Amino acid sequence: MNEVIIQNCPNGFKWKVIHQQNKVFLRIRKNLVKIDFEVYKRTILQFVDQVEFFFQSSAPKILPDDEYEVTANQKFWEEWHRI
User: Fold this and answer.
1) Residue 62 included in any domain
2) Is there a contact between 26 and 16 (Cβ–Cβ < 8 Å)?
3) Do 15 and 28 contact (CB within 8 A), yes or no?
4) Is pLDDT of 54 > 80?
5) Which pTM value belongs to this model?
6) Average per-residue pLDDT in the chain?
7) Does 34 reside within a domain?
8) In a domain, 81, yes or no
9) CB-side exposure of 31: number of CA atoms within 13 Å?
10) Within a domain: 83
């Protein structure tokens, strides 16, 4: 396992992110929003920091004994920090 692939969630919204030059287009259903790339990048990185803070400040996680799940969790955080 080299990368973590997170499939679509049947309970959430599906959206498309389109990068064109220095703009990012977000399509959600029939709505299209245009954002400057630097604003988009800054917003995403701030959100990522908030998510990581939430995980790190929460109670310790009890991982299952399943080797696949342990490896998947490890790979997830490796990829999280690499990106």
Assistant:
1) no
2) yes
3) yes
4) yes
5) 0.68
6) 86
7) yes
8) no
9) 6
10) no
